[in-house]
Amino acid sequence: MAIGPDPDTRAWLGLSGSVVAITGAGGGIGRALAADFSRAGAAAIALIDRDGDAARRTAALLEGPRVLPLTCDVADPAAVAAAAERIARELGAVDVLVNNAGLLRPGPLATLPPAEWNALLGANLTGYFLCAQAFGRTMLERRRGAIVHIASIAASHAQGFSGAYSVSKAGVVMLSRQLALEWGEAGIRSNVVSPGLVRTPMSEAFYRDPAIAGRRAAMVPLQRVAQPEDIAEVVLFLASPRSGYVTGQEILVDGGFGRTLMDLVPRPGFDRAEHTNR
Known about the structure:
Elements: H1 7-10, E1 19-23, H2 28-39, E2 44-49, H3 52-61, E3 66-71, H4 77-90, E4 96-99, H5 114-142, E5 145-150, H6 165-183, E6 188-195, H7 210-218, H8 228-239, E7 250-253, H9 272-276
């Protein structure tokens, strides 16, 4: 089913007529972002993904905005520069950049090859920097713009045996803060959305076993694992003029999962089961 603008419910965001660039647009969160920006009345959306076919599949779902799917490896400076030039030429100056592309690969630090370390940092951190530079030039000239970076709860809670993943996401948070500091006087805002547990194509393998999927949901205070749309809704707010005085911030979108540490500590008389089974 085609996804078009829904002005009755999204007009309050003030994103109507905007030009948006989304990296990692072929994946779960990227696709949800494209759909939500379309519903919010974006005039044009650039869909950037290393998998060009996936970007084109996202484009086929959208109805209303001008759409430009692009094959681009965000870790490649030349590819990013070429993509930014083409988007400016065909869609116009970008008002909103969402840095969403990312990799997740298993790997213990003790034996992790440098090539694997660099691959994750390239996609998850350097790519965000390159895209911020490429699209930020026009924002700086126009003295307005919003950048939203997708990081992870792993930015502040180390995720073991995941190579450079946590390190890269922690870097994204600091990159965003530095951009906010350096570009704020030009009217450009930079913020982070950090998902907790979310079911996407990248994490789907974790949910194929119903028992594991159930255990994961049970760990979250809201008792469910996020869908990509849960993340997209918060991104749209940070991209919109409704958050015009918010910059340099990180919003954790995790259903409360990051606040459950003390619930793991055995405390006779205070255990959850003693109070929920009465």
